[in-house]
Amino acid sequence: MKSAVNETMPAVSRSRKDQVSAGFLNRQTVTPLEIMAAEPKTKSTGQGNHGGSWELWVDRCGGFDILQRDRVTIGGPGGDVPADIAVRCAWRSRVATIVRGQSGDAIEIVAASEASSRRPGVLQQLATDQWLPLEGLSSGDFVVAMSDAVPRVRYQRPSPLSRSAVITVAAPHRLVRPIDATILFEQTILVGPESFNHVRAQSLSSQGWVLFRRDDRWWLRGRNVSPQPIELGQRWRHEDWSMMIKER
User: Fold this and answer.
1) What is the pLDDT of residue 111?
2) Which letter, b or e, does each residue of 26-45 get, where b requires 16 or more Cβ atoms within 10 Å of its Cβ?
3) Mean pLDDT, the chain, whole residue set
4) So what's the pLDDT on residue 116?
5) Domain containing 199: what range?
6) Does residue 10 form part of some domain?
7) Entry pTM
8) Count of Cβ atoms closer than 10 Å to residue 147 Cβ
């Protein structure tokens, strides 16, 4: 079995639980969804907007913010309290909040105008793949009502067995931070070329890569790779690709 290592990371002995998991992953017929279903379940942080936040960089793929929070705000680059997901646009501050829950995620409009039929403070349930209803929202002195001026923000939960979601912004708008997308993390993040992955890395082979947290640490496992700890700020390598996670 080929191994993957963290650069400059000391050797870590595997527990009996990891050895059993490695045997499961060595099956040639196991699917990525089976791998994810077998992951240890972790509880939500329950810390509102004070949960964890990290940066993920995947070789030949891009950069991602990872947020583990019960409420995630969306808005422009300004305001006394910057939005968690800030878009370069006419919005001056926060305009909406994604509220995460066991039965699914919902969006709450923070600021609305006469051009919008939505009322502030009302929750609207989100589908697994949709454009967020942000047309006609106001922020400060601006009202973004024209369709060509409204940022198109997409919400996706690509896997039915994971509550993690991905937020992207369509061109010509872009995020303030130099990243490709924001991942709303819950239990697992899938990495690979298939459409059900949270991180779509077209150049990777289909190995069923799964990122997860255990004992306040990040771990990565694959179909032919037993669970490996990810050291923050250190590049993790496997064959011809690499990745790095660091705190924001």
Assistant:
1) 65
2) eeeeeebeebbeebeeeebe
3) 79
4) 52
5) 5-48+53-63+185-247
6) yes
7) 0.76
8) 9
Question: Is the pLDDT confidence value at 14 over 60?
Answer: no
Q: What is the CATH number of the domain that holds 32?
A: 2.60.200
Residue 171, domain member (yes or no): no
Is 219 within 8 Å of 230 (Cβ atoms)? yes
Residue 142 lies in a domain: no
Instruction: Kindly state the percentage of the chain with pLDDT values over 70.
Output: 71
The average pLDDT across 35-59 equals 61
Burial class (CB in 10 A: 0-12, 13-18, 19+), 194: middle
Cβ–Cβ < 8 Å for 143, 115: yes
Count of domains for the chain: 1
Burial bucket for residue 137 (CB in 10 Å: 0-12, 13-18, 19+): buried
Residues 46-61: b if buried by 16+ CB within 10 A, e if exposed: eeeeebbbbbbebbeb
Q: Nearest CA to 150 among 137, 166, 140, 141? A: 137
pLDDT value, residue 240: 77
Residues belonging to the chain: 248
Nearest of 138, 165, 162, 164 to residue 149 by alpha carbon: 138
User: How would residue 2 be classed by pLDDT, with cut points 50, 70 and 90?
Assistant: very low
Residue 43 located in a structural domain: yes
